Amino acid sequence: MLKKSDFLNMSKIQTTGPKVRKILLLSDTHGNLDIINQLVAQTNADMVIHAGDFGFYDEQSIYRLSPRELRLLVSHSPVWRQYEVDKQTNRERLIEIVKENRLLGDFQDFISGEKKFSVPVYAVWGNHEDVHVLKQLNANLRIENLHVLDEHHFYQFHTDENELEFSLYGLGGNFLVSKKLFDKPIAGNGGKVWSVLHQFGSLYQQVKNKSKPSIFVSHVSPGKEPLLSRLIMHFMPNFWISGHMGAPFTCTWNQFTIREMNEYLDWLESDIDLIEEQYQQGRLTEEASLAYELIKKSIDKDDSWYKKLWNINLPDVADGHALLILNEKNFHWKPIQMELNSFKNYLGRRGQAGHPHHF
Question: Residue limits of the Calcineurin-like phosphoesterase domain (predicted)?
């Protein structure tokens, strides 16, 4: 049974559930949403965490996407060999191809109610989404069993005895260390979306019970983003779930297992002059300033945080997914490949001219 209550800027869902909770982890469906219910049935999952590039498009998105995004929809589709598409292909032709092959995916069917998710799905958006649809989801568009993870939503899961099991929160989009960090949320255009400092500061204000287990979800991988990693370490999650990279397998790591602490601290050092300039000139919102102050905050040399956070970077859903299983307060996880020749297929795709990964 679900109870929903609003607290400040936080949408909080409390739920009681089984003592063994199976959480399906997946990413980069790019509109192929039927596979979510299929994998739920195969794994007997109780809920889903989706790490972005979900396929948040409606039937009008095709007219809002840039030519580059339209080309990507074609070049990353099963029908890409049937068409010669390049930078000279005009927009009208690209729209025609996308329409003919329904390359925007299935989300419109969930908007209309024709299709439904079989279990609760908690999702961040990726860097390839229609920002107009995201704004609708933040306003009044409701999809049964779909819960967006952003700065406005923070979820807590409880046992039958009302004891907090874990918290779940996240923020999607690309992470661009540029002037785009200062944009007004939700930031994006032409089918691209990125996160901004204001959102991270706002999300941090919702974080409670840091001593209890928690899961943070982003689209981008923490292994590629030292500035973002330095910010999120202050949120103190136990698991950081991400996608985006398109590796052939689920990648799992803990900084303690791959670096000495001094090496990790050196890696976290980032150029923050651009943010400092905006900060000194008073151009940041209160929330963006909070995020920047966290970035600048000195790092406690106590290595407990260093050993606590486990990163799980997911492949595209076509290549695999994972299960995070909670059993009597203990988490363990299980990566699952879609097929034995996944790596061979991955190498083949990487070698295809004009068929780069979605970045």
Answer: 22-245
